[in-house]
Amino acid sequence: MAVLTMVAMGVWLVALDGSQTTEGLKWLQFLQTVGTFLLPPIVCAWLWEEEHMPFRWLKMDKGANWQVFLTAIGIMVCAIPGINLLADLNSRLVLPEWLGSIEQILKQQEEAAAVLTERFLQADSIGGLLINIGLMALLPAIAEELSFRGTLQQVLWEGNKVQRTKVNLAIWITAFIFSAIHMQFYGFVPRMLMGAMFGYVFLWTGSLWVPVAMHFMNNCMAVVSYYLSGEIGVNGKNYADTIGAGTTWWLGVLSLAAVGVLLWLIHRIVTCPDQRGYDRRTHIQ
Question: What is the pTM of this model?
Answer without folding.
Answer: 0.90
